[in-house]
Design brief:
4-stranded mixed beta sheet; 12 helices; 9 strands
């Protein structure tokens, strides 16, 4: 349990929301729990500054639910679930309740498209989490199958992300710019952008700014100039990160996508192009790994 979670626990005791005995039991809890199919890591936030994220692909909805319940019970206020499909998301919404159930907006907000440069709000306003909060974070979690009050679930279909407990309050810190070469790259870009926002960063989206119409990228010059880190997402020939890195003084994280025709080899062409970039300051994550890029961008931004 990290400092913030310990403080929250003490505040709940002071407010009479939690007994001293229950607080002591949580403080003494082992740093993980053996669920048989998984061992949720309760000390992840203390070691790394970020709580455990659940990779949803290859797990059943019941396994994801069990892991999330264990993390919430340990005091983790929010849980991010990546690579989630519609069927598993529906099962998790039934298990946890939705943002709409908690008095907020619906669970499946639409993601934004092009013209996202201005205030970083294309997808920002539409994707903002309302009413989910985390007032019950650290509170006891009901038995499996019972709804978890105060920790509503929402699903971002385009990015294939699930959120238990919603987004952090406030506008976020710093400035992470997420640039997507084409509209087909937006799902990976949204995974990166939402991950960075989930981790507390302010994000500006610049979408459909690929080199086929490079003047569209130049329209984002102001946003690029104030970025602490840029995530550049591209398929096809993967040229965007090199161009961006030639324009900015901050680190650029390149994300190759599997978008492209036959000789793109499912993103391998873009990956190799980015690894061989002639521009300095470019680092590269795996193909379609928007989560990894958003996580790394947030670490850089928060420094």
């Amino acid at each position: 349990m990290n400092r913030a979670e310990t403080r929250l626990l003490l505040e709940q005791v002071a407010a009479g929301e939690l007994s001293a005995e229950e607080a002591a039991a949580r403080l003494e809890r082992a740093p993980f729990e053996d669920l048989g199919y998984a061992k949720p890591d309760f000390a992840r936030a203390e070691r790394q500054g970020v709580g455990e994220v659940v990779y949803g692909e290859g797990k059943t909805a019941q396994q994801i639910e069990g892991i999330c319940r264990a993390l919430v019970a340990s005091g983790q206020p929010r849980v991010l679930v990546t690579r989630l499909d519609d069927a598993k998301a529906a099962a998790l919404a039934e298990a946890f309740g939705t943002a709409a159930d908690a008095g907020g907006r619906g669970a499946d907000a639409a993601a934004g498209g092009a013209d996202a440069c201005g205030a970083g709000d294309v997808a920002g306003a539409a994707l903002a989490e309302a009413g989910t909060g985390c007032a019950a974070a650290g509170a006891g979690v009901p038995a499996e199958g019972a709804p978890v009050r105060g920790l509503a679930f929402s699903y971002r279909r385009e990015a294939r992300l699930g959120l238990v407990g919603g987004m952090p309050d406030g506008p976020g810190e710093g400035c992470v710019v997420v640039a997507a070469a084409g509209t087909s790259d937006v799902p990976v870009a949204e995974e990166a952008a939402l991950t960075a926002e989930f981790l507390g960063s302010a994000v500006v989206r610049c979408y459909d700014v690929g080199v086929a119409g490079i003047h569209r990228l130049f329209a984002c010059a102001d946003d690029l100039s104030r970025a602490r880190v840029v995530v550049a997402v591209a398929g096809m020939e993967g040229a965007l990160p090199s161009v961006v890195a030639g324009l900015v003084s901050c680190p650029v994280i390149a994300v190759p996508t599997s978008v492209g025709y036959g000789a793109s080899f499912g993103g391998v062409t873009a990956l190799l192009a980015m690894l061989n970039s002639c521009a300095s300051g470019v680092s590269v994550v795996n193909i379609d790994n928007g989560f990894g890029a958003g996580y790394q961008a947030s670490l850089i931004n928060r420094r």
